[in-house]
């Protein structure tokens, strides 16, 4: 085991370059997946006759496919359809669709958990359906959604490592390149990478708890 060699300035810089790509992909994927999940979950909650079953079918389809398959599809199959995205955009699209489907179920469940009596009271006071959804249902539902949504974001950050199969230069991809130089680097590099993932996800967990205590 060569600890000092593993943590040479060049190796550490190279690993952090991959970590930056991981954070960038996770950042955009979190934003897009949250938007997709919120819109799809809210529309499914509204129980629109034609749109609801279509969205439900799409959500179930995506949720029951391996994320790795979706990543490979966006990277390898999309160019055949005339859309060449590149490794980073393919990873963002795949993660956004997959986690968006997961978050949509969290959103729908959070909205359904709101007491129907409050909805009826809001409607009887003169609020329209959309006004009730926006002012009464959504704010209360969001409070209950924070922990599971943040859990999905943590999963998303960890799942960025799957994009190494499409040669995305993210954290695990760069870690493998460093380890390939010398097998003595394996344990130090993997422990360092684990610490980077842990620290980032732990910060997300702390943020989740803070938001949960603030809104309850």
From TrEMBL:
NCBIfam families: HEQRo_perm_3TM (TIGR01726). It is a multi-pass membrane protein. Its main location: membrane. PANTHER family: INNER MEMBRANE AMINO-ACID ABC TRANSPORTER PERMEASE PROTEIN YHDY, MEMBRANE COMPONENT OF AMINO ACID ABC TRANSPORTER. It is found in: Cell membrane. Pfam families: BPD_transp_1. Belongs to the binding-protein-dependent transport system permease family. This is Amino acid ABC transporter permease. The chain crosses the membrane at residues 20-43, 55-78, 185-204. InterPro entries: AA_ABC_transptr_permease_3TM (IPR010065), ArtM/GltK/GlnP/TcyL/YhdX-like (IPR043429), MetI-like (IPR000515), MetI-like_sf (IPR035906).
